């Protein structure tokens, strides 16, 4: 067991434990905060994978924006913030079965795959992923078009959500 | 004399030698030394925080034509210790119906979001915790943890004033993050890197305050809003919502919020110094050694801490709709225009000696155009208001 | 060093937990939380494959960034819809929203 492996196991335990709490906890606000714990764990994994930029973006976008949005939505859709009824619907047994089946299926597929024990190649020193990423996102023969489409999608989502959330008020 | 040239590495090496001579493996020793370093660093920040309490109380007293604390020790310098003792012996109350875990976590997160920022602060060329190549993004990420702590505190207190304060704070912090990121992007464009050390290095010749004074103003305003200090202290507007998100906190838990706020101001003072005023540089004095550079850096940070305090105790609180309108209708568009102009001018004058003057002139031009536009806008609104004979419109705030 | 399988198994487990959340939770907001978990699992996979197979290319990271953007858009629209539904129907329990059910 090397130090990085221990670190990975700790983060994996945090991610899976808090993800499990997200889907089972009774209070919705707590579910949102458990989601934030999961997101921090995932950001730590990105940092372990040498994707520091993505780790920071994960925290800025997910924790700073998406999680806050979730918390606001939970507060806006509750009269009594102390949830009392059961969090799961009556199909939860089937859902658990499907969850286990999908995990089992993915494991089987992974098991039959040959590259499973591959180790990460050494990163060449002096490689600047961030500037490579920036150039790739903005050069026309790389990913300029997907990047622009994504920004148009975000704009459309922004306008759409304002419209949808506002309409109900004016009625 | 190796110590004076590179204190951190010298200490690290000597500690490593003494640790490994006792039979410890090098990996474990390194981790241990890092932990000790973090502990020492945080202790230094907290001791500084105690001093900041005194500075804050003394300066606000002078602004309000009072003497301030002057009883305990010379110039009242031991007053903060009395404050701490008072906070420690107060009753620790958890309100009825509060969410105990989140209620207790919130102050810790609040202070954590500030202490995280100290990791990337370059005091001097070789005195930096870690030189992240995504430093500026890290600054924004730590800010979002602060937002989280506020909403945690507001929700878990089971108090409507606390919740209202949290809503206001989150609205403010999330919106002022955008001009702040744009100002940081201007700096990134000018420096060609997001790392704090690289940004300080890029100001070797000209500090960025000269290349982009507007970015400095935008960053200062959005930093004050991010800190939640007056004129943006709607989150704890005493006359409206008691004390905002920390209404229900007593004793040292409140103390953590308070300490976090002061340290946050000081940290942002440091970031202003490093982003726009060349970090540890002061007319060649920094060549005397890293420790002198660190002292200069702290001095600059303290100065901008004082500027933030100056704004706080001079400008009255603004209304919540003005706060949002000011951000979305004025600051954000201005920041984006500035970013585009900076990128354009930087591209046209790339490698030319006219780069710095061109950037400066373009900034002045944008500022002048903005003022002219605002003037004409205000005149039009005034004419409209006079014509209709009603009360003046509210949007003339800008 | 960590073999690639560790990351992949973690992502698979996270994805399955998210799937369970989507299928089993009553509250519509909680269903969206489950979707977020699944998206994160996908992102872990993308970044892992980038790191282990082609660290010289940036394709994996670009993909992950696009997933971020899509996730943000999805949450904004989804939560707006949920708030709108709450205003009209006064509930966000997914089972009670059966107006279109025959």
TrEMBL record, chain A:
The molecular function terms of the Gene Ontology recorded here are:
NADH dehydrogenase (ubiquinone) activity; quinone binding
Sorted keywords for this record are:
Cell membrane, Membrane, NAD, Quinone, Transmembrane, Transmembrane helix
What EC number(s) is this enzyme filed under? 7.1.1.-
Q: Which regions span the lipid bilayer? A: 6-24, 31-49, 55-76, 88-110, 143-165
Q: Where the protein is mainly located, per its record?
A: membrane
Gene3D superfamilies, per this entry?
Answer: NADH-ubiquinone/plastoquinone oxidoreductase chain 6, subunit NuoJ
Q: Name one Pfam family in it.
A: Oxidored_q3
Recorded GO cellular component terms are: plasma membrane
InterPro entries xref list: NADH_UbQ/plastoQ_OxRdtase_su6, Nuo/plastoQ_OxRdtase_6_NuoJ
Q: How does it sit in the membrane?
A: Multi-pass membrane protein
| Catalysis performed (reactions) | a quinone + NADH + 5 H(+)(in) = a quinol + NAD(+) + 4 H(+)(out)
The listed locations are: Cell membrane
Q: Which family does it belong to?
A: Belongs to the complex I subunit 6 family.
- PANTHER family, A to Z: NADH-UBIQUINONE OXIDOREDUCTASE CHAIN 6
Give the protein's function: NDH-1 shuttles electrons from NADH, via FMN and iron-sulfur (Fe-S) centers, to quinones in the respiratory chain. Couples the redox reaction to proton translocation (for every two electrons transferred, four hydrogen ions are translocated across the cytoplasmic membrane), and thus conserves the redox energy in a proton gradient.
Protein name per UniProt = NADH-quinone oxidoreductase subunit J
Q: Which organism is it from?
A: Candidatus Desulfolinea nitratireducens
Q: What is the lineage of its organism?
A: Bacteria, Bacillati, Chloroflexota, Anaerolineae, Anaerolineales
Automatic annotation (TrEMBL), chain B:
Q: Name the keywords, alphabetized.
A: Cell membrane, Membrane, NAD, Oxidoreductase, Quinone, Translocase, Transmembrane, Transmembrane helix, Ubiquinone
Q: Which residues cross the membrane?
A: 31-55, 100-124, 136-155, 176-199, 205-225, 256-277, 289-309, 330-349, 355-374
Q: Where in the cell is it found?
A: Cell membrane; Membrane
Q: What is its EC number?
A: 7.1.1.-
Top EC category = translocase
Write down a Pfam family by its short name. Answer: NADHdh
> What catalytic reaction does the record list?
a quinone + NADH + 5 H(+)(in) = a quinol + NAD(+) + 4 H(+)(out)
- GO CC: one term? plasma membrane
Membrane topology recorded in Swiss-Prot or TrEMBL: Multi-pass membrane protein
User: Which GO terms fall under molecular function for this chain's record?
Assistant: NADH dehydrogenase activity; oxidoreductase activity, acting on NAD(P)H, quinone or similar compound as acceptor; quinone binding
Q: Which PROSITE patterns match?
A: COMPLEX1_ND1_1
PANTHER family linked:
NADH DEHYDROGENASE SUBUNIT 1, NADH-UBIQUINONE OXIDOREDUCTASE CHAIN 1
Function of this protein? NDH-1 shuttles electrons from NADH, via FMN and iron-sulfur (Fe-S) centers, to quinones in the respiratory chain. The immediate electron acceptor for the enzyme in this species is believed to be ubiquinone. Couples the redox reaction to proton translocation (for every two electrons transferred, four hydrogen ions are translocated across the cytoplasmic membrane), and thus conserves the redox energy in a proton gradient. This subunit may bind ubiquinone.
Its recorded name reads NADH-quinone oxidoreductase subunit H
The scientific name of the source species is Candidatus Desulfolinea nitratireducens
> Gene name on record?
nuoH
């Amino acid at each position: 067991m090397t130090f990085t492996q221990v670190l990975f196991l700790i983060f994996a335990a945090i991610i899976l434990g808090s993800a499990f709490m997200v889907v089972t906890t009774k209070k919705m606000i707590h579910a949102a905060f458990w989601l934030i714990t999961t997101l921090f764990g995932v950001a730590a994994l990105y940092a372990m994978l040498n994707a520091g930029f993505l780790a920071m973006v994960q925290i800025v976008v997910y924790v700073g924006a998406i999680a806050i949005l979730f918390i606001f939505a939970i507060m806006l859709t509750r009269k009594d913030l102390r949830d009392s009824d059961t969090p799961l619907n009556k199909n939860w047994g089937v859902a658990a079965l499907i969850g286990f089946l999908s995990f089992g299926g993915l494991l089987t597929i992974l098991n039959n795959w040959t590259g499973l024990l591959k180790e990460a190649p050494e990163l060449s020193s002096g490689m600047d992923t961030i500037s490579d990423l920036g150039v790739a996102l903005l050069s026309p023969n790389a990913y300029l078009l997907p990047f622009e489409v994504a920004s148009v999608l975000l704009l459309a989502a922004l306008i759409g959500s304002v419209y949808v959330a506002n309409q109900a008020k004016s009625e | 004399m190796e110590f004076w040239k590179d204190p951190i590495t010298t200490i690290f090496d000597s500690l490593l030698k003494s640790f490994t001579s006792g039979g410890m493996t090098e990996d474990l020793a390194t981790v241990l030394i890092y932990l000790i370093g973090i502990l020492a660093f945080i202790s230094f920040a907290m001791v500084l925080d105690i001093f900041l309490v005194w500075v804050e109380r003394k300066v606000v007293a002078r602004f309000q034509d009072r003497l301030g604390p002057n009883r305990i020790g010379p110039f009242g310098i031991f007053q903060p210790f009395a404050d701490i003792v008072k906070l420690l012996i107060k009753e620790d109350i958890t309100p009825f119906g509060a969410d105990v875990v989140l209620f207790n976590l919130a102050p810790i997160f609040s202070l954590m979001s500030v202490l995280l920022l100290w990791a990337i602060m370059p005091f001097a060329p070789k005195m930096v915790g870690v030189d992240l190549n995504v430093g500026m993004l890290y600054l924004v990420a730590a800010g979002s943890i602060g937002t989280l702590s506020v909403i945690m505190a507001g929700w878990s207190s089971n108090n409507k004033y606390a919740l209202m304060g949290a809503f206001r704070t989150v609205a403010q912090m999330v919106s002022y993050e955008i001009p702040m990121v744009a100002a940081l992007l201007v700096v990134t464009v000018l420096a060609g890197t997001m790392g704090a050390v690289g940004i300080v290095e890029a100001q070797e010749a000209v500090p960025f305050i000269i290349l982009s004074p507007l970015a400095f103003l935008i960053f200062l305003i959005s930093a004050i809003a991010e800190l939640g200090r007056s004129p943006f202290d709607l989150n704890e507007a005493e006359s409206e919502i008691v004390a905002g998100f920390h209404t229900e906190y007593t004793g040292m838990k409140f103390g953590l919020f308070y300490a976090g706020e002061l340290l946050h101001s000081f940290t942002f003072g440091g970031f202003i110094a490093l982003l726009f005023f060349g970090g540890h540089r002061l007319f060649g004095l920094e060549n005397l050694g890293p420790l002198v550079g660190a002292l200069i850096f702290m001095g600059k940070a303290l100065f901008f801490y004082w500027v933030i305090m100056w704004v706080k105790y001079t400008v009255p609180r603004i209304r919540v709709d003005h706060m949002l309108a000011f951000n979305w209708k004025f600051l954000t568009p201005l920041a984006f225009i500035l970013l585009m102009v900076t990128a354009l001018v930087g591209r046209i004058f790339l490698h030319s000696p006219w780069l710095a003057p061109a950037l400066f002139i373009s900034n002045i031009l944008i500022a002048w155009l903005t003022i002219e536009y605002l003037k004409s806008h205000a005149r039009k609104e005034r004419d409209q208001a006079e014509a209709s004979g009603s009360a003046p419109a509210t949007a003339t705030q800008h | 060093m960590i073999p690639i399988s560790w990351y992949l198994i973690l992502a698979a487990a996270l994805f399955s937990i998210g799937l369970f959340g989507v299928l089993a939770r009553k509250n519509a907001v909680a269903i969206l939380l489950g979707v977020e978990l699944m998206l994160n699992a996908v992102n872990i996979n993308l970044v892992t494959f980038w790191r282990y197979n082609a660290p010289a290319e940036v394709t994996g990271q670009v993909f992950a960034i696009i997933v971020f953007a899509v996730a943000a858009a999805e949450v904004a629209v989804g939560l707006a819809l949920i708030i709108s539904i709450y205003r009209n129907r006064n509930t966000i329990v997914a089972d009670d929203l059966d107006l279109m059910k025959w």
